[in-house]
Design brief:
With 472 residues, the protein is of the alpha+beta class. The protein contains 6 helices and 16 strands. Strands 8-11-12-13-14-16 form a 6-stranded antiparallel beta barrel. Strand 12 and strand 13 form a beta hairpin. Helix 2 runs antiparallel to helix 3 and helix 2 packs antiparallel against helix 5.
């Protein structure tokens, strides 16, 4: 049971604990206040491979876009309202007014409209009623279009109110950002538009059919009649007929233009703006996680208005972390040369007359110094970051590469060149055991046998070294 508890504890430490660590987030306030500084304290001990994020508080992403060394935010164009086709009501009003005047003149002179006596195409009172009906029908359609235009303008006014609020630095939408209600309203407008289109098409078809059967024959006979007194009335009837047809055509053209602006795709595009506004209503921007891969990261943050013609200012900042540290510690291998050497003696034998051999001590020429390797710890400071030149103290252990491999202790100082991976040149004192001629040895004394007259003693000398340093 105890082993199971320990296993659970280890799994928790390895799996869960990394997720409980504090997130490395750089906080920026927008708009910035005077004298404000960026707090980078949480990133001073960031390690290679770890992730960090940029968080900008108070930014309205409906009017600003953010770039972190490159474009990073969602919106790329200004918010825009739904565009509708134009209502050609001026021309429609003019045609309806002209139609009313024309029919009024025909009604006033209807007693003279018998183009041919006993003709089957006599202009009858029901014909005048039909023309009068067209006046009322077109007036009704014009009023329906006017109401539709007003409804669309009211809808667009609500939509634009949201867009205007979204362009404030600190928007407050209240209950206006209700795109479900706006969607229901525009759907009702589309249904009303379709009904008006059906009414126009039916009236137009009925009138054209009536005109072909009743109006066209009268105009044709009037143009053939020799009675010149009927010519003005026939021309008036002809103009009225043309105006009615032209009026229905204008109704159709206007409705077609409006339908172009109310397609499902155009409404979808406009409502995307509302969705983006709703998504950005917390006025906050988080970048995607960014990975720290260098010894020191430099981050550029760009904040610019989405609409280049808005007159809003742009912002740009740059910061680096971890903060530049003059002091450093590093370790690495080195090759050294030291003026540390052994004293070497030899015994030279001489045969005496009695055939015995005597020995004298001779001091040999020793080497000038020794070469070796060392593992050195260095601590120092950099002069300038851009040149990466530093001075440091050095100490560590080494091994001489001589006939007798011996340990060495090195202490000194030097210069380093580089940032993380550095080249170092060192100099100082080296200490270690070397061979020295013992005090019992007398070079002027003759010995009867060869002797080993050197002893190991602690010696010191100057060394120079070149090596590699890895900065912690």
């Amino acid at each position: 049971m105890k082993q199971l508890k320990w296993l659970c504890f280890i799994l928790f430490a390895l799996v869960v604990n990394p997720f409980l660590q504090a997130q490395k987030v750089i906080e920026l306030n927008f708009p910035p206040s005077k004298g404000e500084k960026i707090d980078l304290g949480g990133l001073q001990k960031i390690k290679k491979g770890e992730f960090y994020q940029i968080h900008i508080k108070g930014i309205n992403l409906n009017i600003y876009q953010v770039g972190i060394n490159q474009q990073d935010s969602v919106l790329s164009k200004p918010l825009s309202a739904l565009e509708f086709g134009s209502f050609n009501l001026d021309l429609i009003n003019k045609l309806v007014s002209s139609l009313s005047t024309s029919v009024s003149g025909i009604v006033k002179n209807n007693n003279t409209l018998s183009l041919m006596e006993n003709s089957s195409n006599v202009f009858k009172p029901d014909s005048l009623s039909r023309l009068t009906f067209e006046i009322y029908a077109t007036f009704s359609l014009k009023d329906s279009l006017s109401k539709l235009q007003m409804n669309l303008d009211n809808w667009r006014l609500k939509f634009n109110k949201i867009l205007l609020e979204a362009k404030r630095n600190t928007p407050n939408y209240g209950n206006d950002l209700n795109y479900t209600h706006l969607w229901s309203s525009i759907d009702g407008i589309r249904k009303r538009l379709n009904q008006i289109s059906i009414d126009v098409r039916q009236n137009e078809e009925e009138y054209i059919k009536y005109s072909d059967l009743n109006i066209a024959p009268i105009i044709a006979e009037g143009e053939k009649s020799s009675n010149q007194g009927f010519v003005p009335q026939v021309n008036s009837l002809k103009v009225t007929d043309e105006n009615i047809k032209k009026l229905y055509a204008e109704f159709g053209n206007t409705l077609a233009e409006v339908r172009k602006g109310l397609t499902a795709d155009s409404i979808y595009t406009s409502f995307l703006s509302l969705i983006n506004i709703d998504n950005n209503r917390n006025n906050s921007f988080y970048s995607l996680p960014l990975q720290f891969m260098e010894d020191r990261a430099t981050v550029k943050v760009f904040i610019s208005p989405i609409d280049k013609n808005s007159g809003l200012p742009g912002y740009e900042t740059k910061f680096s972390f971890p903060s530049y540290q003059k002091n450093y510690w590093g370790v690495g291998p080195s090759l050294y040369w030291a003026w540390l050497k052994d004293e070497v003696i030899s015994s030279v034998g001489t045969v005496q007359t009695d055939k015995s051999i005597t020995y004298k001590i001779v001091e040999e020429d020793s080497r000038k110094g020794e070469m070796g390797t060392a593992s050195l710890l260095r601590g120092g400071m950099k002069f300038q970051e851009e040149y990466s030149v530093g001075v440091h103290a050095t100490f560590g252990l080494g091994l001489s590469l001589t006939q007798k491999v011996r340990p060495r202790f090195l202490l000194g100082g030097g210069l380093s060149f580089g940032k993380t991976h550095m080249l170092a040149f060192d100099a100082g004192l080296i200490m270690g055991y070397v061979d020295r001629i013992g005090k019992a040895v007398d070079k002027n004394t003759t010995y009867t046998q060869p002797i080993q007259g050197t002893v190991s003693r602690l010696g010191t000398a100057v060394f120079v070294a070149v090596g590699y340093v890895y900065k912690f």
